[in-house]
Amino acid sequence: MTTPIRLAFTMGDPAGIGPEIVAKATREMAGLVRSGRAEFIVLGSAAALAQAEAALGLAASEAGRPFYRMVDVGPVEAPCVTGRVSAAGGEWAYRAVAAAVGLVQAGEADAIVTGPLSKEALHMAGHLFEGHTELLAHLTGQRDAVMMLAHGDMRVTHVTTHCALADVPRRITPERLRRVFDVTLDAMRALGIEQPRVAVAGLNPHCGEGGILGTEDERIIAPVIREYAERGLSGPWPGDTVFIKLRAKQFDAVVAMFHDQGHIPVKLLGFQVDPDSGAWHAISGVNITLGLPILRTSVDHGTAFDIAGKGVANADSLIEAAEYALKLIAGQRAAAAAEVAQAC
Q: In the prediction, which pLDDT does 169 show?
């Protein structure tokens, strides 16, 4: 019998849409629990989740079986008001992530699926991290994490993420490039792509136009790509066309040089906008933290305080994040089993 994959869902900021999307996602994915393929653990405020479930009219169990195991990480003394940024919300979010990391490190969970937190609230609570990736790196003691953004077959890893644009060139080093390339290839294989085709985006417009628009592409990026040519990497490719090639399935993934270069094309596809009202009615996309001792996937949107508590939040991104976690863990298990079989 296959061992269930245990996913630890962190609620994020309980004043945002986290409780609502966790409530919806765990019900929509209940079939995975019934079939024995997965087990769900939810970490955060039990009261906030119960309130969201009551507002949505959701039952606590199905045929006597709960949809998840709840781990309340409170108490937090200060009140947390739905729709408002607060230190209390940041504290709840921080504690949920820290507890989830502890579960994975103790072997009680296989991966973390994070709901949205507010960086402002996190800082108000005294946790001065730029986001989930940096927080997870701190909690695990691993400093060279790699961010992957994904929407369907659009998979993009990033050499740099949360830093000023002026700091990007000096952070693109041969060592960092090799780290991102290695982690990207490992992730593709875990997803079942045995011979991945990975395109590397250039830093400068037109990859520097022969040095006229910058020399980093020729001096730093291209030589490292050549080291990986036999492993399926190519480039550097101009950043304004490489994502079109990815969407056309000419590649399996792209390595972007900086945050917005990689985020904009994926989010443009993942956010579905109503042309009449201008509002988005579906949010899809996954943020995956690679290269750490633990696997973490996440929604690709924020806390949406403006719609919190209204029952209209879309859980598609959280569901997609969970599905990616399941695929990656299953791939890792298969690879480990193959190594054992080969050794025997």
A: 97
> Cα(220)–Cα(180) distance, rounded to whole angstroms?
14
pLDDT at 174: 98
**CATH assignment of 146-291, given 3.40.50.880, 2.60.40.10, 3.40.50.2000, 3.40.718.10?**
3.40.718.10
Q: Using one digit for the tens of pLDDT, what is the confidence trace for 67-89?
A: 999 999 999 999 999 999 999 99
pLDDT for the residue numbered 92:
98
Give me the residue spans of the domains in the chain: 1-144+295-344, 146-291
**59 and 27 Cβ atoms separated by less than 8 Å:** no
Q: How far apart are CA 190 and CA 333, in angstroms?
A: 9
3-state secondary structure 29-69: CHHHHHCCCEEEEEEECHHHHHHHHHHHCCCCEECCEECCE
Selection from 257, 294, 323 nearest residue 101 by Cα: 294
Tokens of 241: 């066309």
Specify the amino acid at residue 30.
A
Q: Which two tokens stand for residue 230?
A: 């036999």
Concatenating the DSSP letter of every residue in 247-283 gives HTTS-SEEEESSHHHHHHHHHHHHEEE-TTT--EEEE
Share of the chain above pLDDT 90, in %: 85
* Residue pLDDT, tens place only, 149-158: 999 899 999 9
Give the closest residue to 111 by CA, choosing from 299, 270, 330: 330
Cα(91)–Cα(120) distance, rounded to whole angstroms? 11
Mean pLDDT of all residues in 232-252: 98
Superfamily per CATH, domain 1-144+295-344: Isopropylmalate Dehydrogenase (3.40.718.10)
Q: Is the pLDDT of residue 281 over 80?
A: no
User: From CA 330, how far away is CA 335, in angstroms rounded?
Assistant: 9
**For 303-317, what is each residue's pLDDT tens digit?**
999 999 999 999 999
